[in-house]
Amino acid sequence: MELATQTLTDKPRDAYYWRLFATAASFTLFGLGGLCLRLLVFPLLSCLPGDAQQHQRRARLTIGRLFWFFINMMQRAGILTYSVEGAEKLGRPGQMIIANHPSLIDVVVLIGLVRQANCVVKQSLWQNPFTRGPVSDAGYISNDGSIDMLDAAAGALRGGQTLIIFPEGTRTVPGAAPAFHRGAAAIALRGATIITPVVLKVSPTTLTKAEPWYRIPHRRFHFSLQVGADIDPQVFASQGPAPQASRKLNDYLHHYFIKELAEDEQSQQP
């Protein structure tokens, strides 16, 4: 997989109307692609020989390849540039990948890079006709906040899967610090072999919780992904009962991301 770092050279409001059209076309294609996967591609894949696990692996590989194609299509259309640092450390058995959530395409980038990963995704995707088929066939886990969700996520890790999770549960509000829910830390303590933080940054901000897709920035945005150092969950598991250990791990992760994001903001100031 080629992970070339793209160079940002846009002028203010460079090709604004083209980027607006290309953004609309990209998300239309994304929705139609999800429907095509549900109605055509996955039914054909299900006809291939193999057990349920092999079918699930094919579904995840298909989604991952299409997601990475989608990101590169957006890059070639002039909507975005991207940089990836440390992707070779992702995708290990029992690894929980914890990421902040600044934009709508965060999960697309991560699944595009880690194609056999499981992922905790928002529950509404199971009600969306464009995404219900892909998330179901890939065996992704619904973030419904239930005990069953925690059990399924921890079980996936104990079974040797890589798990992607966004502890915020939803996209970060622009200008606000990320707020982590403790569920991710509880899952990590129950099942993860290793925790790997991934810091995602989008500049200028776009596709955030507070912005509709058509409110594009004055120039194409840059998406950066930086993989941090591994964290051993057992260091926190030994610090007391499960609720206390979970709180300490969650606080550690929360402060880690706040620090990393604050350093980035300071480096951009004149």
TrEMBL record:
Report whether DNA damage shows up as a keyword of the record.
Answer: no
The transmembrane residues are: 20-45
Pathway listed: Lipid metabolism
Pfam families, per the entry: Acyltransferase
Biological-process GO terms, alphabetical: phosphatidic acid biosynthetic process
- What keywords are assigned to this protein? Acyltransferase, Membrane, Transferase, Transmembrane, Transmembrane helix
The record, for CDD domains, names: LPLAT_AGPAT-like
The domain of life is Bacteria
The answer to whether UniProt assigns keyword Cell cycle to this entry is: no
Gene Ontology terms for molecular function: 1-acylglycerol-3-phosphate O-acyltransferase activity
Give residue ranges for domain Phospholipid/glycerol acyltransferase: 95-203
What name is this protein filed under?
A: 1-acyl-sn-glycerol-3-phosphate acyltransferase
> What organism does the UniProt record list as the source?
Pseudomonas brenneri
